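Quick log. Single chain, no ligands specified.
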Amino acid sequence: LTYNKPKQLWAWLKSLEDSNKMDWLAGHPRTTYTTPFLFMWGEKPVDPVNPHTVNYKLGHHFESGRVFARSSWEGEDAAHFSMTSGIDFHRGHDQQDENSVTFYAYGEGFLVDPNYEPELSEAHTTLKIDGVEQIKGGDGNIARYREDQHGALVVGQAEHAYDFSKTLLGYAERKSYFVRGPIPYLVFRDDSQVEHDRAVEVVSRYITYPNNALSEDGKAVIIKGFRGKAAARLMVFSEHEQIKINIDDVSKDSFVNRGKNYAYKEYLKRLSATVDKVNPQLLSILVPYKNEQNFPEIDVQFDEKSYSYTLTLRFKGSHTDVLTITPYDIVLNRR
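-> predicted structure:
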């Protein structure tokens, strides 16, 4: 669509009718037929620029509570990360996805958003705390966003996203650190607390594409991208213990959105890791690779006095990353 070109708009609408794809925008004909008018009036269009040639920044925090970051503006296989935790002013798209993250690398999607229809928190990379899911109208907050020479740190707070009539949360905070390269990867720490510091069950879910292949690798899981370009190993730790990741069977599960029933298997595959502890401190590590021989050696240590993790990744023939992951920050030192 171009500025003030009604003939082109008419031709586009007619092509939708002829192709019998009226509902391709959000599944609603009213949206399909009204959205194009947003492009007809307003300021004249500006000429696009190549973000790489103007050295445009690789990450941005939007006031609505979204952070998007990438490893480069060059190449279609550049790594990409996002995290959402905010207020959806347009309540028509108010999904229960506070503190959810996505991660793409080497042309594959390993943690993804499942599209428009699956809006529940059980269909996003989120936590279920004390048996309680996030609710419609619940809000999150991006408390911190920092760029450094190695990547981007995002801290999200989602305690107000959960049903307080079922459990009272003191905090539900996720600290994500996206490492841009030379080998991209993602780590995130989840800290949560319920009233009276009770031991409760916390389930961490991880959402990936429905046509990605999943396989167990000890307590870890391998996510193999459906495009055949790369795979990734997902590991979860709770203090000194590595937690077994389960491949959830959602083949018979469904959900209802706007009165219509949908099958989860058409939208996603889901992994989960479960702990039952007082104020659990979960560490998730997702490292992609093209060749398994190049997968780094990984060591995780936990210090009980400072409640901090030390994560070491040794990349063969390249570099070693040492991440200090405290309850307040994530800092990477490279050697």
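The chain has two helices and 24 strands.
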